[in-house]
Specification:
about 170 residues, rod-shaped, mainly beta, about 55% strand, about 0% helix
C-alpha cells in the first residue's frame, strides 16, 4: 500500500512456463502505477529477463543382450536406444555397463538433440557366475546446458553361467 521515499518493497509473483517453451531467458515488461502524497499519478516500466528451465526427459528402449546367456569369459553385445523426449539438448552423453558379473567399456554418444535418438551398443565380458534378476545396469551420464553432470541407471539381467568343468 505504501512505500516511503527511498524505501523498497519486495514483490513476489509466481509464474508458470508453458511446457512447450524452449529453455532460454524470456523478456517481459513490468509496468508500475503509483501515486505520490499529493495523489499525482505516475507510471514506470522495466524489462525483466526470466530464465525458463526445462528438465531433461528421456527413455530407454528395451535393453537387448545377444546372447542372453553367456559363460564366464565370453562376451555379449548389449544394445538399446535412448530417446530424448525433453526440450533440452543433452551434452556429452556417455553410457557404460556395470555389474558383479560383467565388465565393459564406457561408450561416448556425444550430444543428443531434443527429439533425437541415440544408439547404445557395447560389448561386455562375463567375469563371474550370476543368475540374479537385474544383476547388471546401464549407467548413463550427460551434462545440461550449464555443465551440470546428471546420472541415471537402468537395470537389466544377463545370465552368466560358470565355465564347464573340463576334468
Amino acid at each position: 500500500e505504501k512505500i516511503p521515499a527511498g524505501g523498497t518493497k519486495d514483490i513476489s509473483i509466481e509464474l508458470n512456463a508453458r511446457a512447450d517453451l524452449i529453455q532460454k531467458p524470456y523478456s517481459i515488461t513490468m509496468s508500475m502505477h503509483y501515486e505520490d502524497s499529493s495523489a499525482s499519478q505516475f507510471e514506470g516500466q522495466s524489462s525483466l529477463a526470466i530464465p525458463v528451465k526445462q528438465e531433461a526427459r528421456f527413455e530407454f528402449s528395451e535393453i537387448q543382450a545377444a546372447p542372453d546367456m553367456v559363460t564366464v569369459g565370453e562376451e555379449a553385445n548389449i544394445t538399446c536406444n535412448i530417446y530424448n523426449l525433453g526440450r533440452i539438448k543433452m551434452y556429452n552423453v556417455k553410457a557404460k555397463f556395470e555389474g558383479d558379473a560383467i565388465e565393459g567399456q564406457e561408450q561416448f554418444l556425444g550430444n543428443l538433440e531434443s527429439g533425437g535418438t541415440g544408439v547404445i551398443d557395447g560389448i561386455v565380458t562375463a567375469v563371474a557366475e550370476s543368475y540374479d534378476e537385474s544383476n547388471c545396469k546401464l549407467i548413463l551420464t550427460y551434462e545440461d546446458d550449464a555443465g551440470n553432470v546428471q546420472t541415471t541407471e537402468q537395470e537389466f539381467t544377463l545370465n552368466v553361467s560358470a565355465m564347464p568343468d573340463m576334468t
